[in-house]
Design goal:
The chain has 4 domains: about 325 residues, no CATH class; about 190 residues, no CATH class; about 100 residues, no CATH class; about 130 residues, no CATH class. Helix content is about 40%, strand content about 15%.
């Protein structure tokens, strides 16, 4: 029966239909339940905006509809519901310390854990909590687009099932029929998935150790979820199976599993029973989760089904045929594993990167250790030399050092995780360092960054003696491979020895000979102007054969070690050999090489230093890093592209794998994805700090409640409250006495969004959901709750010639009364006075309130710019020398000068 006929069928139903049956437009916002006590701490941890959305807004309506629609499908699981609520509250409480530094910022209402979908479910119904648990399962395993497609099909099939029952005359509960009759939009389902996805990200961080341990266990199994690939039957079976098994485990009843559904439940719900693992070997693992009863032991691997697909990855896997993934085309068969959503920290990426290098250089296990130790000593050698380096070179060497240190760390802590990260680098990053196949003529591809090339190394050696030593090593190695015995001659410049000295003649090797005696045409290798190797009395054919042989002879790691340990390598020449010698572009040649990838990631590391608890999508390891748009932007050294655009581009890529051209990020002030808001530091801190320190990108735990990557671009023109015609009655414009006073203690900043939203192509053609969009934030200022103005943070985007800071280093007394010869200075102590600013120099007194200072700086800049281009806004520290400040302003000679104090 068609869904549209539900209402007619409802009208015909009898015993199960209440007095409201005639009105099928059931208002799902009217019903709100008291959340179970285990969930109360979670509710108190939510921001006011999130809590309102969960209790009265769209999230509550979606939870009510889905809870009613799937009521009765899932078995009762009171033990699981209680344990999950307790765990959710623990996670919420633990996460509070991450949000504390940003509680007073403009993002305060969007800061903190996204427990919206949990609280919406907890205040809707028990069945809604089970629906939330399913949302976590789907978000754990599938991409956002795939999960939304699954939800669309689940809702469609369930509505059809309810309609069929009504058609056949079966009794149907009114709430179920009402839910089936109403539409649940694709965007509502995507928002549900987005909230669940954000929750998982935060919970994974809190339980990082337990989650990684569970991942390592599941990685060694091959266990499918469900049977056929039909979405509705498969997902419902997996959902109900996981709920039953987990409820019994919480209650202390041991369980054996042959299906991956319960294992997915462990990962998605952050409940960790003790495990008996029977494959590949018998191991008992105590997870020590206090929420699990002692008897609740889960046995794994008793009868694991082998993966039928052609994949090298083990683990819990799920195969579904998705009919609603694309607008057009047949159903898309998709296979995902629990590991598909794995994330690592930037520190762990350093280790993976080093493993990638070792794999790229095609070394055996023993050589891996030797080359790692050599790199460690090389970095230490350069560091000890304290030679001048560019910041790029410093970053590069630090990135090398970090990866090597983790690789060589012998401590047993997290040994299994470390090995898995190394295997990840070996197995999944075959193209991460370079897109093109290796070429035999590229020394940049060679082991040890091309330093195991005798031409490069000989140039690095300090003196002629060490160069001769290296050439003798090469000659000895070549001699053993030649059929005919030949005589090699190693020469040095004549000024090193007397004209009568000829050196020591070995059986087939002459140690050195005067340069004038040797025919330069027979030079084999080295630099004929300093130290070189020649063949004495050979035919042209022998010469060519020998030269080809020498080209094929690589230096050994032991050779480099020998000269490094004896400090025979010149640090400056070594640095020149590692990096390009061209001053204009020392970083990005040769294009696409492993060295370039290292340089790119060392650049990214500088951003991630400031991003606490940020994680990286392991999916980026399957694509060449040097082909990304943010790396190409750096390589091209494009002028005019602001640092923050490149930063946002690389962070978005690391977070999601989605590429955004830095040119498309003009005007972006922040972006939100999953459980993170990445924002320019200039709008979340004191403006004086922004102008005296390097600008940064900061990570705030939170989101703006929209799925995918949401780019925030404020309006170009800001709105300001009109000047009150009666404000002259309260505006005083008194003389400034030099004292700090907090005149704007009732000033607050707020963030809202207009209805403007524009989807952007994210590279996935034909999909229902784009994971990339622009939205328009409005940064508002209020005074005692009344709107004053909207702010435009763009004045902090670059070097605004109207905006400066006072950096007085004098010994004069601070915050002293003004002297008579300092001139007239007016004080502005209210918004009415600032909106109608006085002429000359005036001081806006904030008393060190950084939120007010930020708002007043932006509004003062806007108001003075309206009056003309000859003005100045200067931001002072909390302790100011008025003599120096006013002297600086007098030299500027602007008719209007505002001092933020």
């Amino acid at each position: 029966m068609a869904i549209s006929r539900l209402q007619a069928s409802l009208a015909a139903a009898n015993s199960e239909v209440t007095f409201a049956a005639a009105n099928i437009n059931f208002d799902f916002t009217l019903v709100k339940y008291e959340a179970p006590k285990e969930y109360q701490v979670l509710g108190m941890s939510l921001s006011e905006k999130r809590k309102h959305n969960a209790e009265h807004g769209p999230s509550h309506i979606t939870a009510r509809k889905l809870g009613a629609l799937f009521d009765g499908v899932c078995p009762a699981a009171p033990n699981l519901v209680a344990a999950y609520g307790t765990r959710a509250s623990q996670i919420a409480e633990t996460s509070l310390n991450q949000t504390e530094p940003y509680r007073d910022t403009i993002f305060s209402q969007y800061t903190g854990i996204d427990g919206t979908s949990i609280w919406a479910a907890a205040t809707s119904s028990k069945s809604a909590i089970y629906v939330h648990l399913l949302a976590c399962m789907l978000a754990r395993m599938w991409t956002a687009q795939e999960a939304a497609a699954i939800w669309v099909e689940l809702v469609y099939e369930r509505r059809k099932e309810v309609a069929q029952k009504l058609e056949e005359g079966d009794m149907v509960n009114f709430a179920l029929a009402a839910a089936a009759a109403q539409d649940i939009s694709h965007s509502d389902l995507a928002s549900l998935d987005g909230s669940a996805r954000a929750w998982l990200r935060t919970a994974d961080t809190v339980h990082q150790r337990d989650q990684k341990q569970l991942e390592l266990i599941l990685k060694n199994l091959k266990v499918p979820i469900g049977g056929d690939t039909k979405v509705f039957s498969n997902v419902i079976l997996a959902w109900t199976t996981a709920i039953k098994i987990m409820d019994r485990l919480v209650a202390g009843v041991p369980q054996e599993v042959q299906n991956g559904a319960a294992l997915l439940g462990l990962s998605a719900w952050h409940l960790f029973p003790d495990l008996n693992v029977f494959s590949p070997k018998i191991v008992f693992i105590k997870m020590k989760d206090p929420l699990m009863d002692r008897g609740g032991i889960l046995s794994l691997g008793l009868s694991a089904t082998p993966h039928s697909g052609n994949t090298e990855d083990n683990g819990v896997y799920w195969s579904l045929s998705l009919a609603h993934l694309k607008y057009y085309g047949p159903p898309v068969k998709s296979v995902r594993t629990v590991e598909s959503d794995s994330r690592i920290t930037f520190s762990q990426l350093n280790l993976v990167l080093h493993a990638c290098l070792l794999r790229f250089w095609d070394l055996n296990a023993q050589q891996n250790l030797v080359v790692s130790d050599t790199i460690c000593k090389l970095v230490e050698y350069l560091d000890k030399a304290q030679i001048p380096t560019t910041f790029y070179q410093t970053w590069f060497l630090q990135t090398l050092s970090n990866g090597v240190s983790d690789y060589l760390d012998p401590s047993p802590k997290d040994k299994d995780l470390k090995q898995k990260l190394i295997m990840l680098g070996n197995r999944r990053a075959k193209t991460f360092l370079r897109k093109a196949p290796r070429t035999t003529d590229s020394s940049e591809d060679d082991c040890l960054l091309g330093l195991l090339n005798y031409t490069a190394l000989i140039e690095c050696l300090k003196d002629h003696t060490s160069r001769v030593c290296l050439l003798r090593r090469i000659a000895s190695r070549a001699q053993s491979r030649l059929k005919n015995k030949v005589q090699f001659i190693v020469n040095i410049t004549p000024d090193q020895f007397g004209l009568d000295d000829e050196g020591r003649d070995d059986q087939n090797l002459v140690f050195f000979i005067h340069r004038e005696i040797v025919d330069w045409k027979t030079s084999l290798c080295g630099n004929s102007d300093t130290t070189a190797m020649y063949m004495a009395g050979c035919s042209k054919e022998d010469f060519e054969i020998t030269r080809e042989l020498l080209l094929d002879i690589d230096l050994q790691l032991e050779d480099f070690h020998y000269f490094l340990e004896r400090e025979l390598i010149d640090p400056n020449r070594l640095m020149a050999a590692i990096f390009d010698k061209e001053e204009n572009s020392p970083l990005w040649k040769p294009k696409g090489s492993p060295k370039q990838a290292l340089l790119a990631l060392s650049y990214a590391a500088q951003y991630y230093k400031d991003l606490s608890n940020a994680t990286i999508d392991v999916g980026i390891l399957t694509r060449p890093i040097t082909e990304t748009k943010w790396v190409r932007n750096i390589i091209a050294n494009i002028q005019g592209v602001k640092w923050y655009r490149t930063g946002f581009s690389l962070i978005a890529y690391m977070e999601t794998g989605i590429e955004i051209d830095p040119h498309d990020l003009r005007g972006v002030i922040a972006f939100s994805t999953a459980d993170s808001i990445y924002v320019r530091s200039t709008i979340i801190q004191d403006p004086y700090k922004s102008m005296t320190e390097r600008s940064r990108i900061r990570r705030i735990l939170g989101n703006v409640g929209k799925p995918g990557i949401t780019l925030m671009v404020p309006p170009a023109e800001m709105m300001i409250r009109e000047i009150d015609a009666g404000s002259w009655r309260v505006a005083c414009y008194n003389d400034f006495d030099g004292q700090p006073v907090e005149s704007f203690q009732n000033t607050s900043t707020h963030l809202s969004f207009t209805e403007y939203q524009m989807k952007i192509y994210d590279g996935a053609q034909g999909m229902h959901d784009s994971q990339l969009s622009y939205i328009e934030p409005v940064f508002s200022v209020r005074d005692k709750g009344s709107w004053v103005a909207d702010m435009n943070p763009s004045i902090f985007a670059g070097n605004d010639r109207f905006l400066s800071e006072n950096r007085c280093d004098c010994d004069h007394p601070k915050n002293q009364p003004l002297e008579d010869d300092m001139g007239k200075v007016t004080v502005v102590d209210s918004w009415d006075e600032l909106l109608d600013p006085p002429e000359g120099v005036f001081v806006i007194r904030t008393g060190g309130n950084w939120v007010a200072r930020l708002a007043l700086t932006m509004v003062a800049h806007h108001q003075l710019k309206k009056l003309g281009d000859d003005f100045q806004v200067i931001v002072c520290p909390n302790q100011a020398c008025w003599k120096c400040v006013l002297h600086e302003l007098a030299e500027a000679r602007s008719p209007r000068q505002a001092i933020i104090f």
